[in-house]
Design brief:
Blueprint (H helix, E strand, L loop, with lengths): L1 H5 L6 E5 L17 H4 L1 E6 L7 H9 L10 H9 L9 E10 L10 E10 L10 H9 L7 E4 L11 E3 L2 H17 L4 E4 L4 H9 L3 E11 L9 H6 L3 H16 L2 E7 L5 H17 L8 H10 L4 E8 L2 E11 L4 E9 L6 H16 L4 E6 L10 E11 L2 H26 L41 H13 L1
Parallel strand pairs: 5-7, 12-13
Antiparallel strand pairs: 1-2, 2-3, 3-4, 4-5, 4-6, 7-14, 8-13, 8-14, 9-10, 10-11, 11-12
């Protein structure tokens, strides 16, 4: 199993009917599998190239909150473009369960699956555990590699446990726990999970961590007629701020237009990637995504992208890329960059113009970024997001649990405080908290890089290390 995960050239490891890759139960906190689940045959794969794309996507479509980012094409592009691979610290590990009763040569009905990674660092995750890693290593442990269930570089909430019901989700969690321990890893983590995943993980004894993002929801039951209608729903100071920001861009001689799907040509992708890399360069960082990744997006998922272009004197100087789910009418602000510095151009390209496009086209939701209270002034509201964590060492697990209890209380108070500062007029039809079913995107103000510990993470590495060491001695 371990060798299969470390070498993409090897075939999957077969673990037989009913027996997960980790062998016998090794301390799982959840419920026993029912009779049908016991008929599943579990295999571990070194990549999605061994999994039928149609079967994967069909299973994803049956979950509670599917997104394009968990689709076979998107995940495969991350690996095949060398954006997320062993060399970059993201070693793919795919857990799959098939019904052994109709399995023929590994092609039985796909019942459950999880896209996992063996991570050798914590970059590109947006749920920061650097302090946990430091604490465990100061206590004499080895934190990396760890097991991670996430979409690389993509803090978009959605389904992470591909299963048809809670029974399948609980079994996946059990298998992840067992496999993490069998491989001698420090921990397993699932980031930006949907409500069904969260509910099952919490009941199985995983530690829950709450974070906050900011999303826009179209007005219901009467959607906004146009951008002016949306602005009219805002408090006067917020409305004037947006109007002022858009005026700065116009007065700088910059005009905006959008390209959708197959309207985005090769030259557009080239210039976008150039702008994207400049954003990283300005922050002395390295882009996560290669040009080849975006070529694969244009080829394999062409209808899932909106490009906002800012031009001056007919020459493009800025571009933002918005991911789309046409079926569910949800948009995610993802990446941006510019070749020139123009006041408020970032806000125009990443928030105002995409939001106007969503309103004009009757879309339901636009999600503008992880973190960033500045988004509230532009009509995006706080949304709770969740991750789940389990640590192999009992003392370390308990120390992190105590920290998360304190952090969670502070986060709840923070969300309550944000809700008291809605940018909308009273009775405007906009909710103060969109719930936990939204999706997040990277904060476009910074270069999509999480190299530093989140300032909201109040974990003291020293206190965690001391608690872990004391627990180990006990």
């Amino acid at each position: 199993m371990e060798s299969g995960a470390e070498d993409r050239g090897r075939k999957s490891a077969d673990h037989g009917s009913g027996e997960p890759p980790g062998g016998a139960d090794q301390g799982h906190r959840g419920e026993a599998a029912n009779r049908d689940v016991d008929d599943w045959r579990w295999t571990a794969h070194a990549g999605l190239d061994e999994i039928d794309a149609a079967a994967w996507d069909d299973l994803l479509a049956q979950t509670g909150q599917p997104t394009p980012f968990m689709g076979h094409a998107f995940l495969s592009a991350l690996v095949d473009s060398a954006s997320a691979c062993a060399d970059s610290g993201w070693q793919p590990l795919v857990l799959v369960a098939r019904d052994s009763r109709n399995d023929r040569d590994g092609h039985g009905t796909l019942q459950a699956a999880a896209m996992l990674w063996l991570k050798r660092h914590s970059y590109g995750e947006y749920v920061f555990d650097w302090a946990w890693a430091d604490a465990w290593e100061r206590a004499g442990g080895r934190y990396y590699p760890k097991m991670l269930g996430a979409v690389p570089f993509t803090p978009v909430p959605g389904t992470r446990l591909l299963a048809r019901d809670d029974t399948g989700r609980r079994r996946l969690l059990q298998v992840m726990d067992q496999q993490m321990r069998a491989m001698g890893l420090s921990s397993a983590h699932i980031l930006f999970m949907d409500e069904a995943d969260r509910r099952c993980a919490e009941s199985a004894g995983w530690l829950m961590r709450r974070t906050v993002q900011f999303h826009w929801h179209n007005r219901q039951p009467q959607p906004y007629a146009d951008m002016a209608d949306f602005l009219a729903s805002l408090q006067r100071d917020k409305r004037k701020k947006i109007q002022q920001e858009r005026r700065y861009v116009r007065e700088a001689g910059v005009t905006m237009h959008t390209l959708v799907g197959r309207e985005i040509g090769e030259a557009d992708w080239d210039h976008f990637h150039h702008c994207y890399t400049l954003t990283y360069r300005a922050h002395h960082s390295t882009p996560y995504l290669s040009r080849d990744f975006f070529s694969r997006m244009a080829r394999d998922l062409p209808d899932h992208w909106l490009m906002v272009v800012g031009s001056r004197a007919g020459v493009p100087i800025a571009r933002s890329l918005i991911a789309l789910d046409p079926q569910r009418r949800v948009a995610w602000g993802r990446y941006w960059g510019a070749t020139e510095a123009v006041r408020c151009l970032h806000f125009e390209a990443c928030y105002h113009a995409p939001l106007e496009w969503c309103i004009d086209n009757g879309w339901l939701r636009f999600e503008g970024g992880a973190q960033g209270e500045h988004k509230m002034a532009r009509g995006l509201l706080p949304v709770s997001t969740w991750s789940a964590h389990i640590l192999a060492d009992p003392g370390f697990h308990d120390a992190v649990a105590r920290h998360l209890a304190r952090e969670g209380a502070g986060m709840a108070a923070y969300v309550d405080e944000l809700a008291e500062h809605s940018p909308f007029k009273a009775m405007s039809g906009a909710a103060s908290d969109a719930g936990s079913d939204g999706a997040s995107v990277e904060d476009s103000v910074a270069p999509c890089d999480d190299t530093s510990v989140d300032p909201s993470d109040g974990t003291s590495a020293a206190s965690l290390a001391a608690a872990s060491a004391a627990s180990a001695r006990a």
